[in-house]
Write a structure and sequence with these properties.
heterodimer, A: mainly alpha, 2 strands, B: alpha/beta, 6-stranded mixed sheet, binds adenosine-5'-triphosphate, binds magnesium ion
């Protein structure tokens, strides 16, 4: 039991921190544009594929550094030459643009790397056991992912709260015109935020790719969860995105680990009244839990946990 | 002498409504000029159009250079400062951080320092590390003006700085205007309180329905009962 709790907590925090690496950028971009960027999970996927492609030529570590930079540059270009032009036609046009972009990216990935998962592997330098608790081992690569995610979290916090550019970003999220009229180049700041947001999603892909499966469906699988995270946290709230990321990370890993059914909990007789339902385990409904949480939050607190904006 | 700011035939629109219909005026080097007029005649729109925040056409020259069509941050960087009427402070940032964002670059040095601001308004120093959103209306007005000055403008356009302020605060605003003028900075002032405008302005303009209807010195204005009755009194 103790080992299940320890490993599930570790995995839950890890999954949550990875979600936050993407949700943070998505939330900042939402505050800037006023619309959700449906292509955000695509940057995550592109990160994984770039990481794979670079790692098989020159190794994992160059990919770890270069792939996120490439994805960031791609994101900046999308903002500068795509979204900024579409912006003047309104929010619906922007939304459709990001939607279309997600499909285009998925098809391109299909064309270049094929529909099957690619063989993106944990680098040998990180392929060992970090520690052992009772009979279960924990891979070093997961510790590395966790460390990376925590470092990125600290980096974001310091940039936003302690640097001048962070102050400009904070002010520009709510008062873009005023910030511009004080002499700051707000459009360029927004392009940088979009680029950094894309780079972080790309980095999440680079490190998650070897641990999960690098395949064209990975963006489509992640997108809805990201959406849940930022709505549950409260659209536009970074603190909310952080709490919701951890919450969903923990809920999902614990649900999978706890393999009990209603019948086990209340005893067979009481549960038999629920028929088949009584024998469904928590693990089996784990994939539904985030959406259940979304529905609950929307009913009980439509602005999200930390939001002050109407959704 | 060519003027610091020259506006000619300025037209601006909100959607289909034609708000500014050929506005002409100028502000000279070191001059204090007031723009008067009833509510809704387009004074704020004039300033926003100069800052590039409202779509407009016509000619706007600053320091001899045509600035119509430039982006707001480019216009600000040429030395035009703007203090909005709605006290657009950044509520989540502290007083000190608000002042910091007034500077255009991290290393900008100019006629004004944070220490100057704190000397003129000790209240801002007491609250330096408080979120600006919790300041009183008067304190927010001070902060908005100081923030713009930190960017070292050569001309500041100030929109209704005394609106809704207590008499003591109005006096402080008046003192800051004096200090700005004392450092040779030009001011374009939109002000309802005639006493202040008449006392500090070298020249003044009256706007009515999207155009300038009177231009002259405070003395000429004081002597012109008809202009005051037709365009200012309610
Ligand atoms: N964002 C906007 N959209 C549509 N119309 C506007 C907008 N802002 C101002 N107007 C209209 O433009 C006209 C001029 O507004 P402006 O703010 O320039 O007036 P003002 O002279 O500054 O007066 P006051 O500050 O007392 O309202 C007004 O009739 C106002 O209703
Ligand atoms: Mg006004």
């Amino acid at each position: 039991m103790l080992e299940i709790i320890t490993f599930s907590t570790l995995n839950g925090v890890l999954y949550g921190m990875l979600l936050f690496m993407m949700a943070s950028g998505l939330t900042l971009i939402f505050s800037m544009m006023g619309v959700l960027n449906f292509a955000h999970a695509s940057f995550y996927m592109v990160g994984a594929y770039f990481g794979f492609e670079i790692s098989r030529r020159v190794g994992f570590w160059p990919g770890f550094v270069v792939a996120p930079l490439l994805v960031g540059a791609l994101g900046a270009l999308v903002e500068r030459y795509g979204l900024r032009r579409v912006h003047r036609f309104g929010h619906v046009a922007e939304l459709l643009f990001t939607f279309g972009l997600a499909f285009v990216i998925e098809e391109l990935v299909n064309m270049i790397w094929g529909k099957l998962p690619v063989d993106y592997r944990v680098p040998p330098s990180l392929d060992f056991v970090a520690f052992r608790l009772f009979d279960t081992t924990y891979p070093a690569y997961r510790m590395f992912m966790l460390a990376t995610a925590v470092a990125i979290f600290a980096f974001l916090l310091i940039v936003l709260k302690r640097t001048r550019v962070g102050l400009i970003i904070q002010a520009a999220l709510t008062h873009p015109n005023m910030v511009a009229m004080l002499g700051h180049d707000v459009p360029t700041v927004f392009m940088m935020v979009f680029g950094v947001g894309a780079a972080l999603a790309g980095l999440a892909g680079v490190i998650a790719g070897p641990a999960l499966v690098t395949q064209p469906a990975m963006a489509g699988l992640l997108g809805p969860i990201l959406f849940v995270v930022i709505v549950v946290g409260g659209l536009g709230s970074l603190a909310g995105a952080f709490v919701a990321s951890l919450l969903i990370g923990l809920i999902q890993t614990f649900a999978v680990a706890i393999n009990v059914s209603l019948a086990d909990m209340v005893g067979g007789d009481a549960a038999s009244r629920f028929g088949e339902l009584g024998h469904v385990t928590v693990a089996q409904i784990a994939p539904v839990l985030p959406y259940l949480l979304l529905v609950l939050v929307l009913i009980l607190r439509p602005t999200g946990l930390f939001g002050n904006r109407e959704t | 002498m060519s003027a610091l700011l020259e506006v000619e035939n300025l037209n601006a629109y909100y959607g289909k409504s034609h708000i500014l219909q050929g506005v002409d005026f100028h502000v000279g080097e070191g001059e204090i000029v007031s723009l008067l007029g009833r509510n809704g005649v387009g004074r704020s729109t004039t300033i926003k159009a100069i800052m590039g925040d409202v779509r407009s056409h016509g000619s706007i020259r600053f320091k001899g250079r045509e600035i119509a069509g430039l982006k707001p941050h480019q216009i600000a960087r040429l030395g035009l400062g703007y203090v909005p009427e709605n006290r657009d402070i950044f509520p989540g940032l502290t007083v000190r951080q608000n002042l910091l964002l007034g500077q255009k670059t991290a290393r900008q040095t100019g006629r004004w320092s944070e220490a100057d601001m704190f000397r003129i308004f000790p209240r801002l120093e007491e609250r330096a590390d408080t979120a600006a959103g919790v300041l009183s209306g008067g304190e927010q007005q001070m902060l908005t003006m100081c923030r713009t000055l930190m960017g070292d403008p050569d001309l500041v356009m100030i929109d209704e700085p005394t609106e809704g302020l207590a008499p003591k605060m109005v006096e402080l605003v008046g003192r800051l205007l004096g200090e700005i003028a004392g450092r040779g900075i030009s001011i374009l002032l939109v002000e309802q309180k005639l006493t202040i405008a008449l006392k500090i302005s070298g020249r003044l303009y009256v706007m009515g329905h999207g155009r300038i209807v009177f231009a002259g010195t405070p003395a000429e204005f004081a002597a012109n009962k008809q202009v005051r009755q037709e365009w200012l009194e309610v």
